[in-house]
Design brief:
Length: 339
């Protein structure tokens, strides 16, 4: 989104959208380009149909709420459909699963050689989970493409009513894309806790299957699938012990938010508040009584502290970290700029 997009949106907020030529002229674009921008605004929920005025401009917070609500409803419909399909399949296979479970009191082991064989086994085993899944992830952060696959798989499992509990090492949450995945996974209903260290990579499916690596140092060599409630119960006890003393993901993100809030000065928090409501740079500078150059330096520092690269990301991150309350423009103006 360029400056013309923002100029047209601000003009529409102030004067409505009845005069398309005026909007185009104010934004410095053609009428046809203005029509495209209005269509984009409607797609984003920033422009909604109105019986009286034709269209009504809404603020970004309301648009985000509507978009999130619509997406949540779509996901809920998908989950209900998946649940119905899974229930039908489980009804057909219930007798066979009961027969298999009866034979799993005897401890058995199956060696899985290489990543391909492990993944094939896991795809099959995970598709048959009915109660719960417990996972320990030590070591380094997985690649981004693996993270995406994990999110899809976990969302499908949760949609079947399966409870997923996952343990990660605390340093994993310091990796940006892993932290984003953890927050998305928690939002999807996955229970996540963080521990200073974890003894091994472990996967427990229901009460009778555990998967551990052949080599703790190199999981790519393969894994061992262990069957039998007696043996799996021991691994479950190890997992439950670490789970009991690990920190919930929410407590770590809240602590991070408080820490970042302490690092931001009054000017930066005031800028964050104004970015979150869509103010333009010249308006922010005027509100805070500073030059455009000083404002650009304050914003650069703010972006660095919040670990973002755009105005929109800064506003969103500030809202997520509860940094938008308690600072007025007057208080920010009273604070001398150190830049």
């Amino acid at each position: 989104m360029d400056d013309s997009f923002h100029r047209l949106y601000q003009r529409a907020r102030e004067h409505g959208v009845k005069d398309l030529a005026d909007l185009a002229a104010h934004a410095g674009i053609t009428v046809s380009e203005a029509e495209e921008v209005l269509s984009r605004l409607e797609e984003m929920g920033l422009l909604v149909p109105d019986t009286a005025a034709g269209f009504r401009v809404t603020d970004p917070a309301a648009a985000l709420t509507r978009l999130f609500t619509a997406e949540a409803e779509r996901v809920d419909r998908f989950r209900r459909e998946v649940s119905r399909t899974r229930a039908a399949v489980l009804d057909l296979t219930e007798n066979f699963q009961a027969l298999q479970a009866a034979h799993q009191d005897t401890v058995q082991a199956r060696t899985l050689h290489g990543a391909a064989e492990v993944n094939h086994f896991l795809d099959d085993a995970v598709s048959r989970i009915r109660l719960h899944e417990c996972v320990m992830h030590p070591g380094s952060a997985p690649p981004v493409e693996v993270i995406d696959e994990m999110m899809l798989r976990d969302s499908e499992v949760v949609s079947r009513g399966v409870r997923i509990r996952v343990l990660y090492t605390q340093h994993m949450a310091e990796v940006d894309y892993v932290r984003d995945y953890l927050l998305d996974a928690a939002q999807a209903g996955i229970d996540i806790r963080l521990a200073p260290s974890l003894p091994l990579r472990l996967l427990i499916l229901d009460d009778d299957v555990a998967v551990v690596p052949l080599s703790p140092e190199d999981s790519s060599l393969g894994a061992v699938a262990l069957f039998g409630r007696t043996l799996v119960r021991s691994y479950q006890a190890v997992f439950d012990h670490i789970w009991a003393v690990a920190l919930p993901l929410q407590s770590l993100t809240a602590r991070e938010g408080r820490h970042r809030a302490m690092l931001l000065g009054p000017q930066q928090r005031a800028v964050a508040r104004m970015l979150a409501v869509g103010m333009k740079d010249e308006v922010i500078a005027r509100q805070l009584g500073m030059s455009a150059r000083s404002l650009s330096r304050v914003m650069a520092t703010l972006f660095d502290e919040l670990q973002v690269s755009t105005r929109f990301q800064a506003g969103m991150k500030a809202a997520q970290l509860n940094l938008l309350e308690g600072v007025t423009p007057e208080e920010a103006r009273a604070t001398p700029s150190s830049l």
